[in-house]
Amino acid sequence: MKFTIHISTLFFLLTSSLVSAQVKFEAKVSKKNLGVNERLRIDFEMNKDGDNFVPPSFENFTVVGGPNTSVSNTWVNGKRSYTKTYSYFLAPNKRGNFTIKQATIEIEGEIYKTFPVTINVTAAVDRPNGPPDASDVASENIHLVAEVSKTNPYLNEGFTVVYKLYVSPETGVSNWREKDNPRYNDFWSQNIEIKGLNIQKGLYKGEEYRYVVLRKTVLYPQKTGKLKLEPLVLDITVEVPSGRADIFGRQIMTKVPKTVTAGSRTIDVRPLPEEGKPSDFKGAVGDFQFSVTTSKTELNATESLQAKIEVSGKGNLKLFELPKLTTPSSLEVYEPEHNENVNTNLTGMRGRISDTYTIVPQFRGKYPIPSISFSYFDLNTESYKRITSDEIVIDVLEGPMASNTNGNSTVSNTKQNVVPNTNTFAFIKTSSNWSSIKSEPFFKSTTFWTLLLVPFLLIPLAIVIRKNKDKRDADVQGNRIRKADRLARKYLSEAKKNLGQKETFYESLERALHNYLKAKLNIETSDFNKEKIESLLTARNVESSIVSDFISILESCELARYTPITQVTMQNDYDKAAKTISIIDKQLR
User: Fold this and answer.
1) What pLDDT is attached to residue 429?
2) How big is the chain by its Cα radius of gyration, in Å?
3) In contact, 321 and 281? CB cutoff 8 Å
4) Which of 70, 224, 336, 352 gets the highest tally of CB atoms within 10 A of its CB?
5) 262: how many CB neighbours lie within 10 A of its CB?
6) What 3-state class would DSSP assign to 559?
7) Strand positions, DSSP E, 316-427
8) How far is CA 363 from CA 299, 393, 404, 405, 499, in A?
9) DSSP-derived secondary structure for 243-288
10) Considering only CA atoms, which of 135, 115, 144, 287 is closest in space to residue 214?
């Protein structure tokens, strides 16, 4: 009986051991001795799928990557082999002997635990002990580089920074993102759009690599001295060979999280030379052409012409001011309209900028526009250059003459004899004609009773007037309409006086419209263009049809000076302008 019990117990223990031996759950580390500056990989590996995996707390370590999950399911000679792994990448916080505690998982209803692992962390080492791990392989096979076209540019001289990611042929990259974007303090910067990441081949330190261009930036330094370019930092998942092969002999790749940086760069910016610097130098650096042109040189008084100051070429076109136009005081000059047509690529800014002035002469005569100079620093010769425009003479053929025009007024120097008048004081009377005035008493007179009763009679009238005023004040919509009508009459009063005089009428009408916009929208004359006006009025909830009417009136003012116009047309334009201003003022919000 005892023998039978012993046999049963032994059979039960053997059976339990075989069942238990079928499930494996263990912790594997890449190394047990490592420097404080190294990384440790730990894999929790099982041969059956499980649930509710709980990793250890990883005391004295920082998790820098993971968990990464991988599953291998293979069949060899009809036999299935299954492996599931949870991988973590750890960085030690300090030196010493540390124990990574147990991890747990539930497999087929049973809880399994790994054995604790002891790790010895030593002082920092130059290279890992033993064979390199996946993180070390990734560091050696992937590089982020910032290529700077020029490290010692002049102030306001453009240069480029191109960020390239180099990857060795045996390494792969996935899931990259920018962790920290560089901020280009003390630089004017513009990123160049990159359409698609094209993989190219190139050399890195003499070895063949694949690379992609991640970012292109054009920079113009705004300060002199040593300026620092902040680094670009990327978080990347790197695929490196694990040293193992699958059943077909192909290399099994291991994914490693990696942070790579291009490193900071220092740019030594040179100041522009003081020797030979023109007094009117405005900071232009590059290679430029300069011109001053007018739309016409002959016209009549109150007609308009445009004078354009333009700089074209290659350089810091957006970073300097154009010279100003100077004209005689008898020419009415409006604020210029600034235009830019500049493209920026890896060679820097290229294009043209201009200021266009509208000039309206008031009197007949010849008016010279003096020559204008433009100075810039030429990078090719490293010297200053000056371009001077020719003098332009504006000939106003018809119109009134200025009252103070030299040569058109004469002053007489003829002296006249003064004849004394013997009867100089004849206007003073020397005799009087007095008469007596009979006065009647004021009390109880007609004047007395009138002054006494009039205030009492005015009280009902004041009450009626006050009620009408309160009613009028309460009429918000009516007040808005009346105010808008008064405003329209105010701005258009000058134009109404000039009805019948084509040039003067349309000039005053256009000025009235501009003054109205300046008062209501608080914008300067230099901002007046049709697109800007349309966008501002639309943004203030003015109906599109009314905006179109306003724009059409402005266009009529521009065209009417050069086309035959009848009195009826001018009256219609005036009425349309008054109605449009009134409606706009009601709708503005």
Assistant:
1) 56
2) 46
3) no
4) 336
5) 23
6) helix
7) 331-333, 337-345, 348-361, 365-369, 373-378, 383-388, 392-396
8) 11, 14, 11, 10, 20
9) EEE-TTSPEEEEEEEEEEE---EEEEEBPPPSTT--TT----EEEE
10) 144
- Place 296 in a pLDDT band, splitting at 50, 70 and 90: very high
One-letter amino acid at 224 equals T
pTM above threshold 0.70: no
Average pLDDT, the chain: 81
Contact between residue 223 and residue 184 where contact means Cβ atoms under 8 Å apart: no
The β-bridge partners of 366 are 395
Query: According to DSSP H, which parts of 296-403 are helical?
Result: none
Q: For 22-130, CATH number? A: 2.60.40.740
Q: pLDDT tens digit string along 86-119?
A: 888 888 888 899 999 999 999 888 899 999 999 9
**C-alpha torsion angle, residues 92, 94, 99, 102 (rounded to 10):** -40
The C-alpha atoms of residue 80 and residue 491 are separated, in whole angstroms, by 94
CA distance linking residue 292 with residue 373, whole number of Å: 10
For the record, the structure tokens of 465 come out as: 């007037």
359, β-bridge pairs: 305, 333
Residue in the block written with tokens 């154009």: 322
10 Å Cβ neighbour count for 558? 11
Alpha helices for 389-445 (secondary structure H): none
Cis peptide before 67 (omega within 30 of 0): yes
How far, rounded to the nearest angstrom, does the alpha carbon of residue 147 sit from its chain's CA centroid? Answer: 26
* Side chain identity at residue 356, one-letter code: T
Return the H-helix or E-strand segment holding 66: strand 61-76
DSSP letters spanning 277-315: --TT----EEEEEEEEEES-SEE-TT--EEEEEEEEEEE
Q: Tell whether the torsion through CA atoms of 179, 182, 183 and 188 is positive or negative.
A: negative
Three-state secondary structure call for residue 110: strand
Q: Are strands 96-100 and 200-204 parallel, antiparallel or unpaired?
A: unpaired
Report the C-alpha gap between 45 and 518 in whole angstroms.
76
Helix-then-strand count for the chain, H and E: 8, 30
- Tell me the C-alpha distance between 3 and 12, whole Å: 14
Strand partners, 73: 82
Q: Look up the CATH architecture of domain 285-396.
A: Sandwich (2.60)
Both structure tokens of 264:
């900071």
Strand 365-369 with 392-396, pairing: antiparallel
**Tokens in use for 266?**
């220092």
> pLDDT (tens digit, 9 = 90+) per residue, 227-236?
999 888 888 8
Residue 410 confidence (pLDDT): 31
